[in-house]
Structure formats: structure tokens, C-alpha cells
Write a structure and sequence with these properties.
By secondary structure, the chain is α/β, with parallel strands linked by helices. It has three helices and five strands; from the N terminus they run αβαββαββ. Helix 2 links the parallel strand 1 and strand 2.
Amino acid sequence: RAGHTVERERTGTGTSAAEFARIRRRADAADLVVVSAYVTPREYRGSVEAGGAFATFVESLAASGKPTVVVSFGSPYLLRAFPSVGTYLLAWGPAEVSQAAAADALLGRAPIGGRLPVSLPPLHARGAGVTRPAAGAVASN
């Protein structure tokens, strides 16, 4: 609805190397890649981080210099799997309202602000974060 062309791909634990290669070719042709990821943060159960082929894929995109944004709709710890990502947004939940809010923030229609409630060693200390007004808004103190 914002006038941008968006192409979508979905990956999961069963995504093959051939599928990742096909998605990579599409990503290489794009001006910007936005990766939305959801890993359920469950205390003392399973992993709260991305791993495997997905993490390798995202890290290779970011390390290539391709503008890459990762939006985490779950665990804040995903960033440790792809430290070359320059732009990382935490939306904190998979609900549709969180997805719409993240899209509005990335498009500049909504401000971005927040501080990490946890540390992401060795990348960011607890309390790190940014504040960015919506596009066209004037920042105030």
C-alpha cells in the first residue's frame, strides 16, 4: 500500500540449500532485503536464537554489503546469529498489530524508539537502543 514493490519468500527448518540459493538470487537483485524472523523466546526450553542455514543465509546477505534489515518478532537474541546486519528492529511479538507497526516504522510512518532490556554480548549492552522520529517529524528533547 505504500507504493513499494514487495516480494515475499518463506523459509523454515525444511528449506533446502537449493531453495536458499534461489532466494539468494532474488535477494541479490533487490535494492533492500527485509528479513522478518520469529523464534519463540521460551525460558529453559529449546533455543532462543536462529541457527543453521537460515542464520548463514542472513549473515551472508549482510556481509555482502546488500542493505539488509532484520526484524525480530520474537527473541531479541537473533542478532547474535548474524552480527553483520546493520539494522535490527525488535517488534517483540508475532501479532498482526506488531507486524503492521514494524512496517510503519520501517517506512518512516511511525517513530522508532526503545532500549534493550537485555544484553546481546558482544554486540550491545542492556539499555542500548535508538530513537528516530517518523519521516517529516521534528525530533524534540
